[in-house]
Design brief:
The record marks 253, 296 as: Lowers pKa of active site Cys. One of its GO terms (molecular function) is glutathione transferase activity. Residues 172-296 form the GST C-terminal domain. The structure is a single chain. The chain has 326 residues and is α+β, with helices and mostly antiparallel strands. It folds into two domains: 2-164, Glutaredoxin; 173-284, Glutathione S-transferase Yfyf (Class Pi), Chain A, domain 2 (Up-down Bundle). It is 37% helix and 8% strand. The chain is built from ten helices and six strands, in the order βββαβαββαααααααα. The strands form two sheets. The chain has a four-stranded mixed beta sheet, with helices on both faces. Strands 1-2 form a two-stranded antiparallel ribbon. Helix 6 packs antiparallel against helix 7. The longest helix has 24 residues, at 203-226. The radius of gyration is 19 Å and the shape is globular. Bound molecules: glutathione (GSH). Glutathione is lined by residues 1, 28, 60, 63, 65, 95, 130-134, 147-150. The site of glutathione (GSH) has 15 residues, from helix 3.
């Protein structure tokens, strides 16, 4: 754990002393967009045209934000167009590493670097800020396109359609306005809510995260008792963004992050919905529970000082989901 300051690595855990024990997620800095014709996207600069073989993802299988991008790579048939490297699950004082030695960790196939931060300094020798996954890398220009998962999934949703012929749309025009507030609530109270609970260093900060987290899960349970997917009968990015937190919930957030008012499996609709999304063609292969369990329990020394990785729970994501009737 640490961050880059003018290209130099500074070690240190999150400082919650100035925020009353609250964990505040910093905003991301690389915000360009791949587009079909290379024109600029909603943020950043242009010049990142969708081309086969040009782009590369650095991901952690453990990370729910990186997981979104892997899911979209699958759903949109981008495996042959966008290559991937997977970091080691242990994120210690050097930050994410590209070391091998854990099944599934690939090393760095582009540069042979040892640390993910060297990918950031390869793009900008004076880079400052957190070194996070996912990173979308442009092999042609030798720079980072984006390290913002919410935007990477929108690029993947459409930028390569002309090359792949896959026009499945997870961010349909007619639902965009309705998706936004759903995403916002889920991001704040669930995706990031579990982190706010888990990294809180005061009771007040923990309470302030746990209450809205479970209020939102109750709201989602009711919504999913009447709708097959969050936005009705079509699966959208809102579902995939929620899925990556739900699939980790009982293994890491319930125990390690103390989000333990209830388990995912205690919510019949949310649990069946999670199983349906898990069973979606291609998706199960993006879920690596060994990386998930190892990363959280082993890396967060302040939360789990002895780094013991618990044995369970046993979860059967392949059990029939029975949601066809909705
Ligand atoms: N806004 C980013 C957040 C990504 C993020 O926070 N990733 C975590 C892993 S789950 C990370 O790399 N953390 C490293 C750090 O905070 O130093 C996104 O959604 O892409």
């Amino acid at each position: 754990m640490g961050e880059l300051v003018d290209g130099e690595w500074h070690k240190g855990w999150y400082d919650t002393s100035k925020t009353g024990g609250e964990f505040r997620r910093t905003t991301t800095t690389w915000r360009n967009w791949i587009t079909a014709d290379g024109s600029a996207g909603p943020s950043g600069k242009g010049g990142f045209k969708a081309e086969p073989g040009r782009y590369h993802l650095y991901v952690a299988y453990a990370c729910p934000w990186a997981h979104r991008t892997l899911i979209f790579r699958k759903l949109k048939g981008l495996e042959r167009l966008v290559s991937v490297d997977v970091v080691h699950p242990d994120m210690l004082e050097e930050g994410w590493t590209l070391e091998t030695g854990f099944a599934g960790s690939t090393g760095d196939s582009l540069f042979g670097k040892r640390y993910l931060r060297e990918i950031y300094t390869e793009a900008d020798p004076k880079a400052s800020g957190k070194v996070t996954v996912p990173v979308l890398w442009d092999k042609q220009r030798g720079t980072i396109v984006s390290n913002e998962s919410a935007e990477i999934i929108r690029m993947f949703n459409s930028a390569f359609d002309g090359l792949t012929g896959n026009t499945d749309d997870h961010w349909p025009e007619d639902l965009r306005e309705a998706i936004e507030p759903v995403n916002a609530r889920i991001y704040d109270t669930v995706n990031n809510g579990v982190y706010k609970a888990g990294f809180a260093t005061t009771q007040a900060a923990y309470d302030a995260a746990v209450e809205p987290l479970f209020a939102t899960l109750d709201w989602l349970e009711a919504r999913l008792s009447e709708n097959r997917y969050l936005m009705g009968d079509r699966v959208t990015e809102a579902d995939w963004r929620l899925f990556t937190t739900l699939v980790r919930f009982d293994t890491v957030y319930h125990g390690h992050f103390k989000c333990n008012r209830a388990r995912l499996v205690d919510y019949p609709n949310l649990w069946a919905y999670t199983r349906e999304l898990y069973q979606w063609p291609g998706v199960a292969s993006t879920v690596h529970m060994d990386h998930i369990a190892r990363h959280y329990h082993y890396s967060h020394e302040t939360v789990n000082p002895h780094r013991i990785v618990p044995a369970g729970p046993r979860l059967d994501f392949s059990a029939p989901h029975g949601r066809h009737h909705l």
